[in-house]
Design brief:
It is a single chain. With 219 residues, the protein is of the alpha+beta class. The chain has one domain: 3-Layer(aba) Sandwich (NADH Oxidase), CATH 3.40.109. The chain is 43% helix and 13% strand. It has nine helices and four strands. Strands 1-2-4-3 form a four-stranded antiparallel β-sheet, sandwiched between helices. The mean pLDDT is 97.
Length: 219
């Protein structure tokens, strides 16, 4: 495996910013986007249960409709890609069994060898008040989406793709327009990706972050 150097990683993260204005004429190359979609699916999640769905909105008319429920933010329609990170409304015993079956098939082991792990997961989802540090199913599944969002943002930066995480939208309207609740999901957070516009004033501003010494404590 070829690794990026520490300096390359930091250069990528210093280069990235939450793009406020995208160039609508620039599209992410197909192979780059394919890698970013794969990166989404490689995101870690609690137990590995992946209680999410990533909806990539390609249709321009749909994106225009969504923009009206996103504080009319231009990124929704101007970015090359719009990803809606959706949390699963409820993780069920059937979901756990499907995951166990997938592990067994992928790793070539009997499903019975995973009985202990299965029992642990069932114990959690059957008592959702214990999930998410005691905050319940909704908070727990939402947190998983934010883990995936972090992986996506970092992956974009490493590949030289601009991105913007977005919470300024109406989840109820997104659910209606995209038909999410009928599929057992709900919109949780957004990300737009593409290439910054040359006249985006934010792009040239210095990044403002507290120092490592202030933010990182060794005990």
């Amino acid at each position: 495996m070829q690794n990026v150097s520490p300096s390359q990683l930091l250069d990528s993260l210093n280069w990235r910013y939450a793009a406020k204005k995208f160039d609508p004429t620039k599209k992410i190359p197909a192979d780059t986007w394919k890698a970013l979609e794969k990166a989404l699916t490689l995101s870690p999640s609690s137990y590995g249960l992946q209680p999410w769905r990533f909806v990539v909105v390609d249709n321009p008319q749909t994106r225009a409709a969504l923009r009206a429920h996103s504080w009319n933010q231009g990124q929704i329609t101007d970015a090359s890609q719009l990803v809606v990170f959706c949390r699963k409304l409820a993780v069920t015993p059937e979901d756990v069994q499907a995951y166990i079956d997938d592990i067994a098939k992928t790793r070539g082991i009997p499903a019975s060898a995973l009985d202990g792990f299965k029992g642990m997961m069932l114990g959690s989802i059957n008592n959702p008040q214990t999930l998410g540090g005691g905050t319940g199913m909704e908070s727990w599944t939402a947190r998983q989406c934010y883990i995936a969002l972090g992986v996506f943002m970092t992956s974009c930066a490493v590949l030289g793709v601009d991105a913007c995480p977005m919470e300024g939208f109406d989840p109820v309207k997104y659910d209606e327009i995209l038909g999410l609740r009928a599929q057992g999901y709900t919109a949780t957070v957004l990300a737009t990706a593409g290439y910054r516009a040359s006249d985006d004033p934010i792009a040239s501003m210095k990044k403002v972050r507290f120092s490592v010494e202030q933010m990182v404590k060794h005990i």
